[in-house]
């Protein structure tokens, strides 16, 4: 089990690459900000680990969606406030849940 949360991964440093994915556990059938989460290479089944995590999104998609929400064109954790990053992450979590 991972010690990071989904919101922690989303508001941290993500590499802009579609081959990497964010994997998270669902809570009551949905991804939640507090869902245990981790990063993994998408070329391997379940990011290379056998656990309860499911693919949430690839890194490139997550960054693009959060940038779009914030009105940015280049995600930068140094110039984005923590509260804005959390808000964008929560938006993305809601959007992914709606798509499922």
Strand percentage, roughly?
15-25%
What share of the residues lie within helices? 25-40%
Please describe the biggest sheet, giving its number of strands, its sense, and whether it closes into a barrel: 4 strands, antiparallel
Form type: globular
Mean pLDDT across residues: 88
As for the number of domains, it is: 1
Strand order, largest beta sheet: 1-3-2-4
Global Rg: 13 Å
Report the oligomer: single chain
Helix/strand/pairing category: alpha+beta
Strand segment tally: 4
Give me the number of helical elements.
3
* Uncertain residue ranges: none
* CA-CA gap between termini: 24 Å
- Which sequence of SSEs, written as H and E, runs from N to C? EHEEEHH
What can you see in these coordinates?
This protein has 100 residues and is an alpha+beta fold. Strands 1-3-2-4 form a 4-stranded antiparallel sheet. Helix 2 crosses helix 3. The model has no long low-confidence stretch (mean pLDDT 88).
Features:
100 residues, alpha+beta, 4-stranded antiparallel beta sheet, 3 helices, 35% helix
Q: Short description, anyone?
A:
The protein has 100 residues and is of the alpha+beta class. The protein has helices at residues 6-10, 59-70, 82-99; strands at 4-5, 20-24, 36-41, 54-58.
